[in-house]
Amino acid sequence: MWRFMVMATILFMACSSEPTPEEKAEKAAEEMEEKLESLASAFKEKAEEEKKVVKELSYKQLMEFLPKAPSGWQAEKPKGATMKIPAFGSYAQTQQSFKKNGKEIQVQIVYAPELMRVPGLYLPMVEYENEEGWGRGTTYKGYKAFEEEKGNRYTFAVLIKDHIAVVVAGDKDEKETIKEIVDEIDLDNLEDLLED
Predict the structure, then answer these.
(1) Rounded to whole angstroms, how far apart are CA atoms 70 and 47?
(2) Quick one: three-class SS letters along 119-150?
(3) Are 72 and 30 members of one domain?
């Protein structure tokens, strides 16, 4: 009977003892693997969802939306480029300059969906004022926009679905002309480029 009690006690202790450090490590590794698999699955779902939205555009498609020169301004030859950046996917941009009496206004249309997803990197939606000038987030024809006056320079930018930015910049005394140029750009049809 004494032997039976010792065996029962040993068996009870073996069954009720705390896990060994190896067992704890193994359990932690299993839990970590499950979490990583869950996270990977979530990222995969998000990537699949974004693939439906993100498409490739070329600078030639964007170039069709460049505005004509305002009255009295001379248009320079438009430029553009399309490229793929491993960390940021497809990128396309086109630009046009208008010149008059030594002044210049630049128009730029940029397609960079991956880059524009980084908060505040391309179009800061902030409001600020300092000794050099001011800037503020706003809306324009239902789109997010940003305007800034810094030194002698004025910039007005419009963001379309966090994928396309239209940026027009020049001397601050040409603010009205810059806004007229922005008005000439067909933002709604530019947005349609993002649809399938």
Answers:
(1) 42
(2) CCCCCCCCCEEECCEEEEEEEECCEEEEEEEE
(3) no
Please check whether residues 38 and 110 belong to one and the same domain: no
* pLDDT tens, per residue, the chain with 196 residues: 545 444 444 444 555 456 666 766 676 667 666 665 665 555 555 555 555 445 788 889 999 999 999 999 999 999 999 988 776 677 889 999 999 999 999 999 998 876 555 544 445 567 889 999 999 988 999 998 999 999 999 999 998 887 889 999 999 999 999 999 999 999 999 989 888 5
pTM value? 0.69
Burial of 70 (0-12, 13-18, 19+ CB in 10 A): middle
CATH number at residue 125: 3.30.200.100
Q: Is residue 104 domain-shared with residue 14, that is, in the same domain? A: no
Domain count, the chain: 2
Enumerate residues 6+ apart whose C-beta is below 8 A from 35. none
